[in-house]
Task: structure prediction
Amino acid sequence: MKKKLFILSSVLMVFIITVFFSCQEESTVDPVLGPYFRLEALHISAEAPNQINFIFNVKDKDYFAIADKELTDFIFYEQSVKIITPLHIAKDKVPFTQKTAILIDISANAEGDFVEVKKAVQNIINNKQDYQEIAIYTFGDNIVSMHSFSNNKESLISSLENIFFSGNSRKVYDAVFAVSKMYDNYYGMDKIVEGNTIVFTSGDDTGSTSSLNTTSAEVNDNENPTKQKNIFIIGQTSKIDVGDFEFIGKVYDTDNIVNLSDKTQEIGEYLKKCAGSIYGIFYKTEKRGNYTVPVRAEIIRNDNRTSSSYAEDNFLSTNLTGGSYSKPLYPIPENEEENVSNNIQLSWLCNNPEDLTLLYDIFMKNENDEDYLMIAQDLTDNFYSTADLEFSNTYNWYVIARTPGSPIGTGLESEHWEFETMFSIYWINQNSGVHNTLYGVDFLNETVGIAVGKSLQSGGGVILRTTDAGASWNAQNISDNKNLNAVCWQNSQNLWAVGEGGIVVKSVDAGTTWEIENLNTESNLNDIYFADENNAWIVGSGGNIFVTNDGGDSWDNYNKDINLNAISHNGEKTFIVGDAGKIFKEFSSNEWTEISNDAGDNILKGINFSSANIGFAVGASSTILKTENAGTSWDTLYIENLTEDLSLHDVFAINDDIVYFIGDGGQVWFSKNGGESWELKHLNLGTAVSLRSIDMVNENLAWIVGADGKIWKYEFSQ
Result:
């Protein structure tokens, strides 16, 4: 008996020691638990033959979005068994839209704050993400839609000008309730939509407790993810009742009205996290028959011990066959990729665990086609090279995978993918033979052109002439010790150049020889423009405007008392831009009227009209203006990723769609839709230099000149 007790005691002691040291070892390796995460299932679906799609989100203890997780941060289970098959986690696999409704208080006591509210709303719009759509509503006695959900920044900002203030009612609760019902969150493999509302209000809500409770239930419905919406309430003054508003959203109590834009910046950063906090896993499952199968996602080292520590949902395996291969996935180019080469290799992946022989058929159409055409069939490789696709075109394509013997076009069909080919921009650096700054360029036709600028050798002006489309340039130095700033053809033989200290030079033999003209001025002359053989204008510093109606035989002088920099003509009227954001329009013969615009005090340096109604102007601080009504009004164009405070020197619109502007830093921006969207194009050499002037002969041939004698030629060719 004693022997048995001794043995039991020994075994028990060994067990205790083993457990003790095991615990000691574990606590040494991992003494601290991880942070607190909440996970929520948003969507699950099963696609034949064996594809499972599971979408969920991750938030912290206070329900704030977490956007920095990777596949290695998670553990996934199917029917309580850890998933060990290949997983794919992708936040960008499904098209995503973030809808932001902006609510603006228009009660009478909010009117004095509107200047700062407007700045804050413009800040939201200007910093919106590509996937973000914004709508604008006002509320007072009634809720009014000022602009439906849109991506158009200019249109959204313009709608703010139509806001008027009236009444004393400011029922925020009712407004939030009404607007939040105008959009629903949606989670699926075809798309994901998440909405949020940003409210600007000047004080307490005048609604009832019941309206507060109703609104809270609408936006905080934990049983229905489609109704869980982020509400941000920005108090314009200290009068806001933080306590009640916290029942429906996050409150920003702003004592200082000028801090509104800081708050919207903070909200914008959080909304980016919300977009990134949606995760999805996509994997292959086994054949199971008719079952309900649970899938669970957990985060490693999660201190949360409640049911919200994991995301779980069920799929029906009824239609899953286990499949020997999957539909084609993961295309290259990626879905909705832009600036794709017109000669590209298409490729895709197709899971094929049994290593079956598969054949692929490819179908494609471009934006001008009504129906898909089969461009390849019976491919045994999962790639295919295209050739000579159209430039600047949108293509849709899909692939069908099938086994040998199956009819063409039958089998497992991929999603329909899309890509956009590049607008072929090839800028070729020309050998100008000089290293001075060139300020102006003008081409008579495709082969004959003139560039003017500063001569390092003589200290005066230089004129470069080409008669072979830029293959060679002949330099001429002007004897006068003054730089040349601009050049313009009058006709096929006559052309003029102007520059510093009032210098004007003229050629009557297509630029072979030059003679100095006298305008009796010592002011710097910045631009010259001939509308036809008889009518021309020269502008310069001190507000000088020189006008001729007889082809340059005589010039009349007018003055606007401010430096003038560039001229354009829309076929009917002449326009001049200058310092302090000034735009002048000639309403009648030599009578100039200032046109209001959004340039502020920024210097305007370039202007160009593509037609009677459409024109563009550019200048300092990355200023870009557009008119669509023959210069009666000018609106600012905003471009994401355009360097701030960049000095833009010239703009050229060959037609109402194709527009270029250039400036410091070697940046060339191009639009093919009249300024609705822009692309940054890089030159082959010297992209850090200042670009000063651009001229286009037609939409397929352009020239740019700038610092260090640089000349670039762009020739479009398919």
Observations:
- The chain is about 10% helix and 40% strand.
- The helical segments are 2-29, 114-126, 153-159, 172-180, 209-219, 242-245, 260-276.
- The mean pLDDT is 85.
